[in-house]
């Protein structure tokens, strides 16, 4: 193997760390109708498509000098109108995800306190405490976010391993296979495609990999492959233990209760009967949501500061903080149980900027520069495949929103 391990390891960590987050907590609820076999198939398809779109971005990025952003590539190759549309899509995704994390974080805190003390705190208070604590780090500095994130990620890895291994000891094969039911129905797959797509979104990191590693396509491509495989293994492990502990029938109650992360934790606790494992799972869920909140929040914070030309003084950062976080926090207060739908909406926008836009960029780059150096696997089929799947996800989610596709309940 000719790869230098440290760069590949660092790139793999960046890709996996960006992809894995709170979105994985929505997977068991999104897949309840189709259940384990169909969800496995959809997971593999989503992984393959998102890997290909990231490799398409890599090919495009190598035609530019290291340091060029995603925004710059879209503007130079597709023009200002596409650049504006792409910017709107990314902003929508970030606002939507922050709202989802406020909703999910408050739900987990409420459920954890209720489970331990028997007294439920106000959801409003739980969401506010969660959001205000994390936004304080973002307001303080990027360095504060970086250092705090290291602690959160370390805790997330430890609690993930403990919770997954603990839940695996309680896994029931008949529950996982839905032996008492019909094993899931394919019709429920179409409404989940946008949620699954969101789980593999890390594409803004591709230009960053080129910036930090230089024009090293073999090393970066290895990072993309290994990083997405790590995410795939984590998601499949989580789906396996979740579906093996909570029956398909029990998920109806989870969805009816609002489909938030706290509802999932409550259902897991009812089936596990283990205080320690449940606490580990709740801790992992809260850390995953918090880590994702900081990542999305810092990205949107910097974007808003640049867009609105707010300076870096305390007052300037306060104005940026209000514009960035007031809308999603208010949304979390007004509509506290929107975690699952929000992840789906983020998937709809992600289908545009992380699947369709990379396909258009690849077509424009090949037209302008030809095929030189690194070439995305898949040959001529790559571009039409990405365009088809991106449009397919958008159509499925639109039909689902207008109740033209069934939801499991």
UniProtKB/TrEMBL annotation:
It is found in: Cell inner membrane. GO terms for molecular function: aromatic amino acid transmembrane transporter activity. It comes from the Bacteria. The chain crosses the membrane at residues 7-29, 35-51, 82-102, 122-141, 148-167, 187-210, 222-241, 284-305, 342-365, 386-405. Coiled coil: none annotated. One of its GO terms (biological process) is amino acid transmembrane transport. It is a multi-pass membrane protein. Pfam families: Trp_Tyr_perm. Gene3D superfamilies: Amino acid/polyamine transporter I (1.20.1740.10). Keywords: Amino-acid transport, Cell inner membrane, Cell membrane, Membrane, Transmembrane, Transmembrane helix, Transport. Its main location: membrane. GO terms for cellular component: plasma membrane. InterPro entries: Amino_acid_transport_2, Trp/try_permease_CS, Trp_tyr_transpt. Signal peptide: none annotated. Belongs to the amino acid/polyamine transporter 2 family. Mtr/TnaB/TyrP permease subfamily. PANTHER family: LOW AFFINITY TRYPTOPHAN PERMEASE-RELATED (PTHR46997). This is Tryptophan-specific transport protein.
């Amino acid at each position: 193997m000719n790869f230098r391990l440290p760069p590949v390891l660092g790139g793999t960590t960046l890709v996996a760390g960006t992809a894995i987050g709170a979105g994985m907590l929505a997977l068991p609820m999104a897949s309840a109708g189709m259940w384990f076999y169909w969800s496995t198939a959809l997971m593999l398809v989503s992984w393959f498509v998102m890997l290909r779109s990231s490799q398409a971005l890599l090919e495009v990025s190598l035609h530019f000098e290291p340091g060029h952003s995603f925004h710059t590539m879209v503007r130079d190759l597709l023009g200002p109108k596409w650049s504006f549309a792409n910017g709107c899509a990314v902003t929508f995704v970030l606002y939507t995800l922050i709202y989802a994390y406020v909703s999910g974080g408050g739900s987990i805190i409420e459920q954890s306190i209720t489970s331990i003390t028997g007294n439920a705190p106000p959801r409003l208070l739980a969401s506010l405490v969660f959001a205000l604590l994390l936004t304080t780090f973002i307001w303080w500095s990027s360095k504060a976010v970086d250092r705090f994130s290291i602690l959160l990620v370390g805790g997330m890895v430890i609690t993930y391993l403990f919770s997954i291994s603990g839940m695996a000891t309680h896994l029931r094969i008949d529950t996982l296979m839905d032996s008492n039911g019909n094993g899931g129905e394919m019709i429920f797959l179409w409404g989940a495609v946008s949620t699954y797509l969101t789980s593999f979104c890390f594409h803004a990191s591709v230009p960053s990999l080129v910036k930090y590693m230089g024009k090293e396509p073999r090393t970066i491509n290895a990072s993309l492959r290994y990083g997405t495989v790590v995410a795939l293994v984590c998601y499949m492990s989580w789906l396996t233990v979740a579906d093996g502990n909570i029956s398909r029938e029990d998920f109806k109650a989870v969805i009816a209760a609002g489909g938030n992360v706290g509802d999932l934790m409550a259902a897991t606790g009812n089936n596990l009967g283990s205080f320690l494992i449940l606490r580990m799972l709740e801790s992992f869920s809260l850390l995953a949501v918090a880590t994702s909140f900081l990542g999305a929040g810092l990205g949107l914070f910097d974007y808003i500061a640049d867009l609105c030309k707010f300076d870096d003084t305390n007052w300037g950062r306060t104005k940026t903080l209000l514009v960035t976080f007031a809308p999603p926090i208010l949304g979390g207060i007004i509509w506290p149980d929107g975690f699952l739908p929000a992840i789906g909406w983020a998937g709809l926008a992600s289908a545009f900027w992380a699947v369709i836009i990379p396909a258009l960029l690849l077509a424009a780059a090949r037209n302008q520069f030809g095929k030189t150096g690194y070439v995305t696997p898949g040959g001529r089929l790559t571009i039409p495949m990405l365009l088809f799947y991106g449009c397919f996800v958008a159509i499925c989610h639109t039909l689902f929103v207008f109740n033209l596709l069934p939801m499991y309940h």
